[in-house]
Design a protein that fits this description.
globular; 7-stranded parallel β-sheet; 318 residues; 5-stranded parallel β-sheet; alpha/beta
Length: 318
């Protein structure tokens, strides 16, 4: 690579915990700029900082049409992660801009987090820990997971990793996905329709992508069909649920607990649901560990270097 390329990492965690992916770019002669804000870029920040970039490594930023059309000579938009719903891929494709992602790089970590949320809610660990540290000694029964039904919406890389954990807990696992993959079947997952999942699940974990068919797929009608006292975990996308309808069923305890790591914007506007005592939140870190951060960064850099050197990237989207 003889030309000095400009690469802007807008992903909050890219280059933050592990420098090796950044150093690889620099050794190739790239000028690398990292996110100085600790949050996703706004449209205006994209224009000001990355408008003249040859490549951007994005996280949970909204890479909208205005952002994309403002780029002067960009070649690749590389996702530092999996979901590309925040990137207007049709616009990028029309302009000849390559889009890539980093599939499978944080699947185990997200699955761990989803199962951790399930345990936290079922056993009421947060409340018990707080009370015990306060010198209280209050014993009360909580909820078992073995021999209960785990519903899974979306059984791709992350969903399959989560299924393995649920089966390890001795649960019956039912799942809904337009694509019925062999691996989950061989593990013992029962593929059923969406209606059966929401009707029979004691626990529900959401792992589907956000698109036209999944946006607000959980609303008042769907919540009404669920079992009383169901626990729901969402580590996919917030827009998959209608939050106003969700608020009502969590407040009434029809949904006994809701835990999420994903939000419409980062940091989010504080919806009233976030203040309920049976709602649990983490700041979109389900897939972020030292190990997964290295894998995501390395894969994003693999894609960027491939495009800048005229090769087909390993994780091409468009």
């Amino acid at each position: 690579m003889t030309k000095k390329y400009k690469v802007v990492g807008t992903a909050v965690t890219f280059g933050r915990f592990n420098q090796e992916p950044v150093e690889r770019l620099e050794k190739m002669g790239c000028e690398v700029t990292l996110n100085p804000f600790g949050r996703p870029f706004t449209t205006e920040e994209f224009k000001a900082i990355a408008g003249d970039a040859d490549a951007v490594i994005v996280g949970n930023d909204k890479v909208n049409e205005e952002v994309i059309r403002n780029f002067t000579h960009i070649k690749v938009i590389a996702k530092h992660g999996v979901g590309i719903d925040g990137i207007k891929t049709d616009v990028a494709k029309s302009l000849g801009i390559t889009v890539t992602n980093a599939p499978g790089t944080n699947k185990e970590e997200v699955a761990d987090s989803a199962m951790g949320f399930m345990l936290l809610m079922a056993r009421d660990f947060v409340k018990m820990s707080r009370e015990t540290k306060e010198g209280k000694w209050i014993k009360y029964p909580t909820f078992s997971m073995a021999n209960k039904t785990m519903g899974v919406i979306g059984v791709g890389n992350i969903g399959t990793a989560f299924v393995k954990r649920a089966l390890g807990f001795g649960m019956r696992v039912i799942a809904s996905d337009p694509v019925e993959r062999d691996e989950p079947k061989n593990l013992g997952v029962d593929y059923v329709d969406f209606e059966t999942v929401i009707r029979e699940a004691d626990y529900l974990s959401i792992h589907c992508p956000l698109n036209e068919t999944t946006e607000k797929m959980f609303g008042a009608a769907e919540f009404k069909k669920m079992k009383e006292g169901i626990f729901i975990v969402n580590t996919a996308r917030s827009q998959i649920l209608d939050y106003d309808a969700l608020f009502e069923v969590v407040k009434s305890k029809k949904v006994a607990g809701y835990a999420t790591d994903v939000f419409d914007y980062e940091p989010p506007a504080m919806h009233p649901i976030y203040g309920l005592d049976n709602v649990y939140l983490t700041p979109h870190v389900a897939g972020t560990t030292y190990d997964s951060n290295y894998r995501m960064g390395s894969t994003a850099v693999d894609n960027v270097i491939a495009v800048l050197t005229g090769e087909t990237p390993p994780n091409l989207i468009v």
